[in-house]
Design brief:
Length: 443
């Protein structure tokens, strides 16, 4: 019920703004049902398409949600609430495959790296007005990027991948702009874009990454930015190969004004090479995080890009946090210099478990995807039922609603805590929870 609050406006933007004012003031509380579009159009004396456009804007900004014939209502959670809250808590005795964390046994001991960072700090502590990037880290980062074929560009450091993507988006885009994102894709990014007031345009993908036609369609639909995951895409494990990279660069050549952001999500724990798209557009950024391979609490990501983009990111950073702690930067530099992570061994460990699960599921008639990384994506017809049945069988999995927009329902299984001996029992549980399916795609 709307109570006494009166929605006003003649244009879609004005109607959307009126609803947002009501939500902000508390007059439209979470769960309040909005009038049907035709009814509100009659009350305001506007075309129903105008109200439809307003409601679409509100959905994209995370203000309202629509549940078919039950209508549209104010979201029970604010747009800034992470999709991670859409998770299943694992009660005692239930294995948790939904948290997305890496295998602790494959993370390096940070003691030596932090001790080395402390020694470096003793020789030259970080002070106000000092360099924002530790020179040794910049040197190692640039060498690694050069080796992977990432175009030359200045190096900056952010507090993780999400921080980098947010800063790049804000550097060039404004509220209302559209951003093309993989579907299914990283839940944090699907929350971040609407929280910035921007619109999400979903892109279909397969095991080689975003489909060229989907990218072309998103850009023609008005997307001003494109975010692509190079390796270990979350949640599907997709990785962009050389042929797909060439196809995507050809698409981007026709849209030189689009902002391109690449997330090298699989750095140091995937042994497939990265095939950068960087340089295909005038404005671009390539982000290399360290959290999955070195530890989630090591909140550091290296970013390079065209000069204007990196300059805007670092300029705005100076006005906020200033810089990322030099202690953390020295620690990462030490980890890279000493090759603390054996990428091939880590990739092999994840691959043995991931591939065994995908193979076992296939033998039981269940289609699944997991080319790289630490996750397996299983499309399902009834997501809620599958999650509940898995929980009853002793396994907590991540609901696909955390990761998808237009793509079909699914569940994500993180294999980090599995042993090879766990694969058979887990595959049996999935097969019991998910009826055998015809060959499917992510969408």
């Amino acid at each position: 019920m709307l109570g006494e609050y009166r929605i006003s406006g003649r244009r879609a933007s004005d109607i959307a703004a009126s609803v947002e004012r009501g939500v902000a003031s508390g007059e439209l509380a979470p769960g309040h049902v909005l009038p049907p579009m035709r009814e509100l159009a009659t009350l305001l004396g506007v075309n129903p398409n105008t109200v439809a456009a307003a409601y679409r804007t509100l959905r994209e900004r995370g203000v309202i949600e629509t549940a078919g014939r039950r209508g549209s209502r104010v979201r029970p959670r604010p747009a800034s609430t992470a999709r991670g809250s859409l998770r299943v808590e694992a009660p005692p005795g239930v294995r948790d495959l939904g948290d997305g964390n890496p295998d602790l046994a494959l993370l390096p001991d940070l003691g030596e790296a932090l001790a080395a960072a402390a020694q470096a700090y003793g020789r030259g502590p970080g002070l106000y007005g000092g360099a924002a990037v530790v020179p040794r880290l910049a040197e190692l980062a640039r060498a690694g990027l050069d080796a992977d074929g990432v175009p030359a560009g200045p190096v900056a450091v952010t507090s993780g991948c999400r921080d980098a993507i947010e800063r790049v988006l804000v550097a060039h885009l404004r509220p209302g702009d559209a951003v093309a994102i993989e579907d299914p894709g990283w839940g944090a990014l699907l929350d971040l874009v609407p929280a910035l007031g921007m619109r999400v345009v979903p892109m279909a993908l397969d095991e080689e990454g975003p489909l060229p036609d989907a990218v072309e369609g998103a850009l023609r639909a008005g997307a001003r930015a494109l975010v692509v995951t190079g390796r270990a895409q979350n949640p599907t494990g997709a990785a962009v190969g050389s042929r797909r990279a060439a196809e995507l660069r050809a698409v981007l050549a026709g849209h030189p004004d689009v902002l391109l952001i690449e997330d090298d999500h699989g750095h140091a724990f995937v042994d497939l090479p990265v095939h950068p798209l960087a340089g295909a557009t005038e404005r671009w950024a390539f982000v290399r995080p360290v959290s999955k391979a070195y530890g989630p609490d090591l909140r550091v990501a290296v970013i390079t890009g065209d000069g204007l983009t990196v300059d805007r990111v670092t300029g705005r950073q100076r006005l906020g946090p200033g810089w990322v702690s030099g202690l953390l930067q020295h620690a990462v530099a030490h980890l890279w210099a000493t090759e603390a992570v054996d990428t091939a061994a880590v990739a092999r460990s994840y691959g043995e478990r991931r591939d065994a699960l995908v193979r076992a599921l296939g033998e039981r008639g269940v289609a699944s995807f997991g080319r790289t990384g630490m996750n397996v994506w299983v499309p399902v017809g009834d997501e809620t039922g599958a999650v509940a049945r898995m929980l009853h069988s002793g396994w907590a999995v991540a609901p696909g609603a955390r990761f998808r927009m237009n793509s079909r329902q699914g569940v994500r299984l993180t294999i980090s805590s599995l042993s090879v001996a766990d694969v058979g029992p887990l595959a049996d549980a999935v097969a019991a929870a998910v009826p055998p399916a015809r060959p499917v795609s992510y969408g």
